[in-house]
Design goal:
Elements lengths: L9 H9 L7 H11 L4 E4 L6 H14 L8 E4 L3 H14 L7 E4 L5 H13 L3 E4 L1 H8 L11 E4 L2 H6 L3 H8 L7 E6 L4 H10 L4 E4 L9 E7 L2 H13 L6 E4 L3 H13 L4 E3 L6 H12 L5 E4 L1 H6 L7 E4 L6 H8 L9 E7 L4 H11 L5 E2 L37
Parallel strand pairs: 1-6, 1-7, 2-4, 2-5, 3-4, 5-6, 8-13, 8-14, 9-11, 9-12, 10-11, 12-13
Helix pairs in contact: 2-3, 3-4, 6-8, 14-15
Length: 405
């Protein structure tokens, strides 16, 4: 299915053509007609499936065809990196049309705050915001939501994981009840179903089965005690020539400590976490993109908020608690049909989690022997996962809809 089949405005199609967009992805094929038909939507689709374009393009088309002298759309996202990324995509898609957008996120200095307030007063068609900063700006009464037509929650599961449930409901209390609400989530746990039942009205439901890791990813694992992980990392880097590496750890505190541990063994690594100032985070990402920094360390927030090509190694220092987060993590490498390596360290406590990952991707990942100087690691004796992981499937019912607030 091509984008011409959606009968978008010619100027919007010109922008898509200039960007090389021709054929729609499965989530776009299913979601765009629903959104153009003004229905609420809950969609389960992982990062990398084209979900941003799936909601941005029909919204842009609707804005172009209407009187857009007011704030039309609010997009809520979990991180500032994703807010900036979506704002850039909106700018690209709307190159030939007169639609404006503003990214609203925290972490900047006073000048950033003043700039965002000024931009809101001057007006925009689309706001892409993190919940925390938007709550702060709402207190200053600088945003008029009276004529808002669209609310989008992108990566809703990640926002709830970060504790934004109450903030989201508070923001929605400022919005008109007569609106179109679109919820996109990579996973569909009970807390997402609860949120969806409160804020959507008779939604259409779409599920895109989680993609298997790209064939170009060489997946490996080591059975290792925690005390063996750092020297094992040193050995991996000693015997290979990886130029661009991401290491994922389970917590922000672990991310910070790993930076110092890796420095001790001679690795040029820096940690990416929420305590950094915005300018420091941007400088760090620019340093990583330009290959001036070899190793970037982060949590699962980084797995969904980073857009960097050419990453040739991903290391799971800790096994992620959600099997689908594993797919997100290792999906940072082997992009655009390139090759890459993903290595996971499995301690004795994480074996059940890793077994769930193997069940999700429907393959057993090779367990490599530890270097002789490290001695033996734990035996791999995982018990059966308690329940089968969610794999999606179009038409799956998630909840009973209630009238939105």
């Amino acid at each position: 299915m091509t984008f011409d089949d959606f009968y978008f405005d010619y100027s919007l199609l010109d922008g898509l053509d200039a960007m090389g967009f021709t054929k729609a992805t499965p989530i776009q094929e299913l979601a765009i007609p629903v959104i153009l038909d003004h229905k609420d939507l809950v969609a389960c689709a992982q990062t990398g499936t084209g979900k941003t374009a799936a909601y941005v393009l029909p919204i842009l088309n609707k804005i172009v065809e209407s009187d857009h002298s007011h704030l039309n759309t609010l997009i809520l996202v979990p991180t500032r990196e994703l807010a900036m990324q979506i704002d850039q995509q909106v700018a690209g898609f709307s190159y030939y049309i007169s639609v404006s957008s503003i990214p609203i996120y925290g972490g900047g200095d006073g000048a950033t705050w003043d700039q965002q307030k000024r931009a809101l007063k001057e007006g925009a068609d689309i706001i892409v915001a993190t919940p925390g900063r938007l709550i702060s700006l709402l207190a200053s009464n600088d945003i008029n939501f009276e004529k808002l037509e669209h609310l989008v929650l992108d990566e809703a599961d990640r926002m709830l994981d970060m504790g934004f449930y109450d903030d989201i409901l508070r923001i929605i209390s400022y919005l008109p009840k007569d609106r179109q609400t679109l919820l996109f989530s990579a996973t569909m746990p009970p807390k997402i179903r609860t949120l969806a039942s409160k804020i959507l009205y008779k939604p259409e439901e779409i599920s895109i089965a989680i993609s298997k890791p790209a064939e170009g990813i060489n997946q490996q694992a080591y059975l290792t005690y925690d005390t063996q992980k750092i020297p094992l990392l040193g050995e991996i880097f000693k015997n290979t020539t990886y130029q661009s590496v991401i290491i994922f750890a389970g917590t922000k505190e672990k991310v910070k400590s790993l930076q110092f541990e890796l420095k001790k063994i001679g690795l040029k690594a820096k940690s990416f976490h929420s305590d950094l100032e915005q300018k420091d985070r941007e400088e760090l990402m620019n340093e990583f993109r330009s290959r001036k920094l070899q190793v970037l360390i982060g949590t699962d927030i980084l797995s969904r908020g980073i857009d960097v090509d050419g990453i040739d190694l991903v290391v799971n220092f800790d096994v992620p608690p959600d099997p689908e987060d594993y797919v997100h993590r290792i999906g940072r490498t082997a992009r655009a049909e390139s090759k890459g390596t993903a290595i996971t360290f499995i301690n004795e406590k994480d074996q059940r989690r890793f077994h769930s990952i193997e069940a999700l991707i429907e393959r057993e990942i090779p367990k490599l022997p530890l270097p002789a100087f490290l001695g033996e690691g734990p035996l791999y004796t995982p018990s059966k996962p308690r329940s089968a992981p969610f794999k999606g499937g179009q038409g799956k019912k998630f909840f009973k809809p209630k009238r939105k607030s």
